[in-house]
Known about the structure:
Elements: H1 54-63, H2 72-93
Amino acid sequence: MATRKKTAPKKKAATTKKKTAPKKKAATKKKAAPKKKAASRRKKKAPQEILVVGSKVKEVVKANNMRADGALIAAVSEKVHELLQAGVIRAQNNKRKTVTPNDL
């Protein structure tokens, strides 16, 4: 009879941890809605197209030995929009489809 060699007991493969359900994330707090601004402020209008040439506006300001603020061109353009809108309304009230310099 052949003698059997004693072998070391087989090692178990890397022990696996029990699979547990993923932990639920704690409910995050909702951010509070921002507080409303004072009612005295005007609502912001949708941005309008710039109707003036910025370099020409700055040229006029510089000719008077002054400096132009970054928001000047947008402000001038907004005034032009207001002026044109007033002219359109005046022409409509006079039952005309043409805006003339007199309407401004």
